[in-house]
Every structure is written in C-alpha cells, then in structure tokens.
Amino acid sequence: MVPLSFAGHDLMALPEGALYWPAREALLVADLHFEKGSWFAARGQMLPPYDSIATLHAVAALAERTRARELWCLGDSFHDSEGCERLPADARALLTDLTTRLDWRWITGNHDSLLIDHCGGTILEEAEIDGLVLRHEAEPGDPRPELSGHFHPKLRLRVRGRQVARRCFVASATKLILPAFGALTGGLDAHHPEIVRAVGSKAQALVALEDRLLRFPLAA
C-alpha cells in the first residue's frame, strides 16, 4: 500500500486497484461485476464461470491483509441486478461470510441498480461519510469531494516499443475514480474524453506500485 492524500483524507492505494481508508478501517473497491460470465453464457457467449469466486478471493485476501472493518463496493458489484441469485454455492458461501463479518455496503450502479438483498450487507444509492461522497459514477457538477468507479480506467503507455496497460486511479482536486476490481472486467483508456470530462481539468492517472505511486498528467 502507498499513501494517497485526497481532499484532506489520508488514504492508501493498493496495486490491486482498491483503496484503504485507515481512519475508518475501510476497504473500498469498485466494479466487481460478479456473475458477468454467467450473464454472457446465458446469451450464447461462453466465458469461464470462475469470475465471481476469483474476485471474492481477491477481496477476502485484501480484507484480511488490511484488517478492514468496513467494506464499500462503489457500484456494478454484480453484472446485473439478478446476479446474486446466480452465484455458485462456493461463491455465495464466501460472500455471505464476508458480509457477516464486515460492515458491508453496496452502492448500486448502472448494471445493478435494482439489486435486492440476497447476499447480506446494506444497499445504498450513494453515501456521504466524513465529508466524502461515495457513488458509482462521478458527477461533474457536484463540488463535493467524491469517490466513484464506473469507468474502469486503465493507463496505456508505450514502453520500449511495447504497449503496456495498467489499471489506474484517476484523480483531480475533488474527484477520485477507482479502477475496476473484478476479475472479468475490461478498461477504458484514462485519457478518454468521458473520463476527463468527469474529473475536470488537471487530472492525473495514478498507478499504485508496492512501494510508490506513479503520477501521469491527463489534461492541461
């Protein structure tokens, strides 16, 4: 984990694409997209059916490593609002264990806006805690400091003649977008106009390594 100061709060950025909030002992993740594989399979595109359990194991490992007491999911936790009902037994058991042990909050997103509680935790459209707004998609007109997801940002660079893509955070003075955490999620180029529009001018792509945070300007 590496320190990341945002809107007067001391956060920690993890290379896996999550945030840890020490003052609240809270782990924050975005865009888990559980059961994306089964959603596509039902429509004839066969994808490996292990995305949910792989993502849950990754979440559980970070929760244990950080000793988090709270866990906030910033929307699109399921690929569709019925995804929880399709969870395989092992994934459902692990998720239920996590939502029982942690103060688990689901912020709904555009994919799971009709999410119903079948797996534990508390479902919210958005929240404001300790001066930070937590929502799924950034609202450019809202001046309040905000944590969100939705865009799945990735930084694409050419290094020694090779194209390299890394999941990244995107930050401005009042906006901080988390990358997608799910095992079966793609990514939108961090330079994309929709991302720049969402965060405003002077935004940066932030790539968290184990020992440092790399910053790349996105807009003048």
Automatic annotation (TrEMBL):
Residue stretches spanning the membrane: none
Ligase as UniProt keyword: yes
This protein's UniProt keywords: Ligase
InterPro entries for the chain: Metallo-depent_PP-like, PdeM-like, Pesterase_MJ0037-like
Keyword Ligase in annotation: yes
GO molecular function list: ligase activity
Protein name, entry field: DNA ligase-associated metallophosphoesterase
NCBIfam families: P_estr_lig_assc
Taxonomic lineage: Bacteria, Pseudomonadati, Pseudomonadota, Alphaproteobacteria, Sphingomonadales
